[in-house]
């Protein structure tokens, strides 16, 4: 019987799909480094990349029946890893969403989370402060004071469509600022929050 290390990728996938734990172990040995560096490119921290790599392979094992129909393993692994990373970052970003997301972030009893929240809040505040005066004022009136676009328009004596345009422009400016000053998972979390706010602006 040939050594499992000699199996080609397709044979290995079929064995894993059939529930062969030793074959899965070989799959992890062969490809965990590739997944790790993909995760590290996203997350920028060694520990987070290690944990995410484990979670990705756990997901692959849980969905192993799909492997029997995979034709391009490298492409499949890349897509699974990318989607897992993006979904994870989106879920983390969603945990910060609230009616006053841009004013104060959720407080956690975990010191590491508290540090991250402070960093998020500081970057968001800097991003808002760098906006032109009218855009900054409109953004704060809506996302910190809780006013509607119509209420802001009436208060400032401008058209509602002008308020909406300023909001869209403000979020675009915030995105640009985050792109220049945030990195790794922090950037993607903030970017997702910014996109969520942009969608809400269009729906109002």
UniProtKB/TrEMBL annotation:
What GO molecular function annotations does the UniProt record carry, in alphabetical order?
A: DNA binding; sigma factor activity
Which one GO biological process term can you cite for this protein? DNA-templated transcription initiation
Q: Which CDD domains match?
A: Sigma70_r4
Gene3D superfamilies linked:
1.10.1740.10, Winged helix-like DNA-binding domain superfamily/Winged helix DNA-binding domain (1.10.10.10)
The protein depicted here goes by the name RNA polymerase sigma-70 factor (ECF subfamily)
Q: Which domain of life is it from?
A: Bacteria
Which source organism? Pseudobacter ginsenosidimutans
Q: Which residues form the RNA polymerase sigma factor 70 region 4 type domain?
A: 123-164
Q: Please provide the record's keywords in A-Z order.
A: Sigma factor, Transcription, Transcription regulation
The UniProt record lists the RNA polymerase sigma-70 region domain at 27-93
Signal peptide position in this chain? none
Which family does the UniProt entry place this protein in? Belongs to the sigma-70 factor family. ECF subfamily.
InterPro entries for the chain:
RNA_pol_sigma-70-like (IPR039425), RNA_pol_sigma-70_dom (IPR014284), RNA_pol_sigma70_r2 (IPR007627), RNA_pol_sigma70_r4_t2 (IPR013249), RNA_pol_sigma_r2 (IPR013325), RNA_pol_sigma_r3/r4-like (IPR013324), WH-like_DNA-bd_sf (IPR036388)
């Amino acid at each position: 019987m040939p050594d499992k290390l000699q199996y080609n990728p397709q044979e290995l996938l079929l064995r894993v799909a059939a529930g062969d734990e030793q074959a899965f172990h070989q799959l992890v040995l062969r490809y965990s480094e590739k997944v790790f560096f993909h995760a590290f490119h996203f997350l920028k921290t060694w520990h987070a990349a290690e944990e995410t790599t484990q979670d990705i392979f756990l997901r692959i094992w849980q969905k192993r029946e799909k492997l029997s129909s995979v034709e391009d393993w490298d492409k499949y692994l890349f897509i699974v890893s990318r989607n897992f990373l993006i979904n994870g970052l989106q879920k983390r970003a969603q945990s910060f969403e609230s009616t006053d997301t841009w004013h104060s972030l959720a407080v956690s009893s975990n010191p590491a989370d508290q540090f991250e929240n402070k960093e998020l809040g500081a970057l968001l505040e800097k991003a808002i402060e760098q906006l032109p005066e009218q855009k900054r004022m409109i953004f704060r009136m809506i996302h910190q004071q809780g006013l509607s676009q119509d209420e802001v328009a009436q208060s400032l004596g401008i058209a509602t469509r002008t308020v909406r345009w300023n909001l869209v422009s403000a979020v675009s400016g915030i995105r640009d600022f985050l792109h220049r000053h945030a990195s790794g998972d922090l950037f993607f979390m903030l970017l997702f929050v910014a996109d969520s706010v942009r969608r809400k602006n269009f729906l109002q």
